[in-house]
Specification:
Structural class: mainly alpha
Helix content: over 70%
Strand content: under 5%
Number of helices: 3
Distance between the termini: 69 Å
Number of strands: 0
Largest sheet: none
Radius of gyration: 27 Å
């Protein structure tokens, strides 16, 4: 019976959500467009975050797989160390 307390809490939250009344509030066109613009910006930033985390390792893997020449800075560092 260890699940009894969370079940009671969830049923209270569910009952409170069902009993909520509509706010009947008006959102003007400026505030509505701002909210939509903010939501689009947040979704876009999240998608770019995911693409950045995926693309950089893929790009690095493809560059190493092709056997591309190292960059000039890497060549200079190798020459200075030897």
């Amino acid at each position: 019976m260890t699940f009894r307390k969370p079940a009671i809490g969830l049923s209270i939250v569910f009952a409170a959500l069902l009993a909520a009344f509509p706010a009947q509030a008006y959102i003007g066109p400026g505030a509505g467009l701002s909210a939509i613009g903010t939501a689009v910006a947040v979704v876009g930033a999240f998608l770019l975050l995911i693409v950045g985390f995926v693309w950089y390792p893929v790009k690095r893997f493809l560059r190493n797989r092709k056997g591309a020449e190292p960059k000039v800075e890497e060549q200079q560092l190798d020459q200075q160390q030897s």
